[in-house]
Every structure is written in C-alpha cells, then in structure tokens.
Amino acid sequence: MAPLLCPKTPEIKIGGHVQDVQELRRAQPTYVPERYVRDPDERPARSNILLPSSGVPVIDMSKLERSANSRWTDELGKLAAACEEWGFFQVVNHGIEEWLMESMEELTRDFFMLPLEEKEKYPMAPGTIQGYGHAFVFSEDQKLDWCNMLALGVQPAFIRNPRLWPTTPAHFSETLEIYSVRIRELCQKLLVHIAKTLGLAPSTFNDMFAEAVQAVRMNYYPQCPRPDLVLGLSSHSDGSALTVLQQDTGCIGLQILKDDAWIPIHPIPNALVINLGDTLEVLTNGKYKSVEHRAVTNEVRDRLSIVTFYAPSYEVELGPIPELVNNQPCKYKRYNHGEYSRHYVTNKLQGKKTLEFAKLQSPIST
Ligand code: OGA
Ligand code: NI
C-alpha cells in the first residue's frame, strides 16, 4: 500500500473515529466489533490461513551482484521468472546487516508497546497519511483492518515531517535513518537487475525515477480472537515501484493472490520480501504485475512488519516503455506520478482498483 505521501495534501474524507486495535484488545480480549467483521467473500477461511508452504521464489542478491557485468546469468533468469510469474519474491544475502534489521524490529516493537498517550504524540492528522493512526478510512461503514500503523515519509527531505519521527524509544529515529539509506541502496540495485531482466539499459528505472520517493510504514497486528473473520490489512496492490517488507519470523501473516488462491509468504530469517508495485506494472505494459496481497491475523501471536515503499519522484511522467509495448496493445496511459499517488491515497484499499486510474479503456494497438 503505497505511496504514503503525495505532493499536495489531498482532501480526504475521514470515516469517523477509528479505535486503536491494541487498546480494543486490551479492554475486551475476546470481542471483535462488527466494523472489523468482513463480508463472507473477504474472510480468510481457516483452511486458507494454514496453507502449507508456497514456492514463492527466493533470490540470492549476492549472486546477482557478483555477476553485475554479465548480460545474463541463472540468478537473473530466476529474477525474471519471479517478476513475471509471481510479482513477489524474497531476497537473501541482500547485504543489509543483521544487527540493523534486528534493531529496527526491536525498536518498532518497543514503539508499539508504548502507552497509547505516548504514541498519540505522533498523530496522523485528519487529511494526512503520516504518523500513528489509520490511513485509507473514508466512510463510517467501511470495514476496518486489525492493525495499528506508524507511517513516515523518508525521502526526499521535503516529504518529511520531523515532528512525527518518534523520540521514544531512544535511537528509533537514528536507526530508521540508517536502515532507510540501506534499503534505498537495495532498491536501486534491484531496479538495475530488474531492468536487465527486461533487456533495458541497467540504469533505465533509476534514471527515470529521478529523486525517488521513499516512505516507510510499520504495521503492528495484535493477536485477534477471530482471525477467520477479520483482515489485518485489506487486499491491495502497492502504488510504489518496489516494496521491501521486513516481517518478523514469529508467524505467517502476509498472503498473495495467485491463480485465485491466497498463498502465504513464509518468513525466512534475515530475508526481505520484495514486491513489484503498480508503477512497474505500467512501465512494463503489464509484463510484470503488481500482485494483490493482504495480511491476516493470528489468534496467539502478534505480528510486525516494516514496509518501505520506493516510487518515482512526483514530477515524473510515466507510461509503458515503448520497447516493452513492442507490437502489443498499449494498456496504460501516460500520467504524472504525483497525480497517481494522490489518487492512490484518496481511495480505500480494494484489490487492484486504484490501477484503473492508469488503464486505457480500449488498449491502443501499436
Ligand atoms: C503493506 C503490506 C503486508 C504486511 O503495508 O502495503 O502489504 O504483511 N503489508 O504487513
Ligand atoms: Ni502492500
């Protein structure tokens, strides 16, 4: 679900007061209010939650980097297949230090464990999408996600709101700063390899994105007495180009939609989950897709994820890359990415609905 930010503050209708899920659970541990109970077709059936392993590709980043000067390698082939068939993969040997990932997880958990009054010092103000609170809630009858969030703009500097960067726990903000630099480097490297899988010049995406927008959202999913009835996070595709998700290894929660089935992404220690966002779907004219995903909850374990969204600068105009349209119908229009971001954050999360914005009503033959 990205980007978290947009160039101009959108006029967002807020769907009334949204209760804090951790507080709700503390007060009434066995109760699930009606506003969280999903319609039957959206519920994660129990059997679904316990699906066995998935075959989601695992990419070894060190192999990709070692052969950075070759045109094609087995690992690049694996990456190409992961992008084309899955839109999701995990990366190992990505170079982000274990201590940094662990500290980030620990500090984020410490943040969510703070008393509510402390967390509310960083409120997501009405009409904004940064801070502690609930974005994407627009009406009183909209179902709510079983999740608390802290969302922050990171880069470029003008999107930051320093008052929303927590001063407690100590070192949270400095650690996030270091972490974000490292994740940014990883995104840039991944974009080089992804460009190569498409036969494009390696710097294509990084050049095109200019000063990329980077935002982070930390999601905390408390235990839920009825995981079969609720969603931790509604189904959606990400509005980013790339998303990097660090999930705790304690329990499974992230699921992706593949061939009409919800497939869990099993946590691998120290791996990062990467998914392609709407921007890459448009740029590749749908060769690579931004896959729908959601989070489910767990009855006995809470769960944490730290999600970085990496997207083009708001100034960038984008549309399918001509070489990739190549005699096929062009499916998406050209648009300004800032406008797309604004569209994304002013609509509720609902599968891939936001991508309709970019679709041409009747694809143009080339
Ligand atoms: C997101 C997202 C999944 C998760 O934040 O966009 O898809 O497991 N999160 O937290
Ligand atoms: Ni997402």
- The backbone outline, from C-alpha atoms, is globular
Distance between the termini: 32 Å
Structural class: alpha+beta
Low-confidence stretches: 2-15
Description:
- It is a single chain.
- The protein has one domain (21-364): Sandwich (Jelly Rolls).
- It contains eleven helices and 16 strands.
- The protein has helices spanning 21-27, 46-49, 61-66, 74-86, 98-112, 116-119, 172-197, 204-209, 278-283, 322-325, 337-345; strands at residues 58-60, 88-92, 131-133, 148-155, 213-221, 233-236, 242-247, 254-258, 261-264, 272-276, 293-295, 303-311, 317-318, 330-332, 335-336, 359-364.
- It has an eight-stranded mixed beta sheet with strand order 1-2-10-7-12-5-4-3. Strands 6-11-8-9 form a four-stranded antiparallel beta sheet, with no helix packed on it.
- Mean pLDDT is 90; it is low at 2-15.
- The structure holds N-oxalylglycine and nickel (II) ion.
- The site of nickel (II) ion has 5 residues, from loops.
